[in-house]
Amino acid sequence: MEQVLVNSIVAASVYALLSLGFGLIFSTARFFHFAHGAVYAWAAYVAFTVSALWGWPLAIGIICGIVAAAALGSACELVVYRTMRRRGASTLTLLLSGLGLYMVMQNGLSLVFGDGNKALRTWPAGEGFALAGARVTGVQIAIVIAASLLLIAVWLLLHRTGVGLRFRAVSNDQDLASAVGTHVDRSILLAFALGSALAGGAAILISLDVDMTPNMGFIGLMMAVAASIVGGIGSIPGAALGALIVAFAQQLSAWWLPSQWQDPIAFGILFVFLIIRPQGVFGQRIKKASI
């Protein structure tokens, strides 16, 4: 059980960053940004290109991966979504556009890097060391610490700065926020940049621990959606709690079921919350239904 708990905390750290990034975008833009998963995957491959292929320091690769994720997410908003919104596109149309973007970006990864596994880490995998009856590696500890610091930083941004105040205003009511002088499009763009950067950080952290593949973004996105809905979309404590619930259920199920059942278990929890408490643990009911 100790190992299950340790594995759950490590996985939840990544899910929480993904969930928070997805929630920021959804809360401000009010639609399902499907390409979020492809942005997540591209960040890991940019870091891999810079550090593993070009031979630059890993720290530079990490920075480039996060910046690339923020740039890709911003480009999705500026080039595709904003143009379509100004033409009166519905949320369903935006969702389908995001799905198309995901497919193009994911297949672009396969075209450039191939479908085989790639490893961002350049050091040999170790057994780690004992911690309260479980085994944990230095990389896994770094993942938990880095994710925790990022979550705290985003909380401070959202609750202690003017930028965060505008985010929350747009999330609550775009029309009212615009009426009082808030630039809605600019806030949405910032949400895409920040949410995508968080996804990029999550992708790089997990890629330091396990291998990466071009289709890693789909599972990452689904886990982000599950954790967001379970915890409450847009809530930082909700992102953390939802991520921990999903991750613990996945790891615990591995005791009795084959590993391929881990993802269906997470989706099962998602369905339960959609039926019983669709706003999540910490979330509030959304007055305007969106896809």
How would you describe this structure to a colleague?
- It is a single chain.
- By secondary structure, the chain is mainly α.
- The chain has eleven helices and two strands; from the N terminus they run ααααββααααααα.
- The chain has helices at 2-29, 36-53, 58-86, 91-113, 138-160, 162-172, 174-179, 184-207, 216-231, 236-253, 262-276, and strands at residues 129-131, 134-136.
- Strands 1-2 form a two-stranded antiparallel sheet.
- The radius of gyration is 19 Å and the shape is globular.
- The termini are far apart.
- The model is unreliable at 286-291 (pLDDT under 50).
Short description, anyone?
By secondary structure, this protein is an all-alpha fold.
E-strand count = 2
Indicate the radius of gyration in whole angstroms.
19 Å
* Text of the CATH class: Mainly Alpha
Tell me the distance between the termini.
38 Å
Percent of residues in helices: over 70%
Low-confidence stretches at least 5 residues in length (pLDDT < 50)? 286-291
Kindly state the mean pLDDT as a whole number? 87
Strand order of the largest sheet: 1-2
CATH architecture: Orthogonal Bundle
From N to C, what is the helix and strand string? HHHHEEHHHHHHH
Total separate domains: 1
Give short descriptive properties of this protein.
291 residues; mainly alpha; ABC transporter involved in vitamin B12 uptake, BtuC; two-stranded antiparallel sheet; 73% helix; globular; disordered C terminus
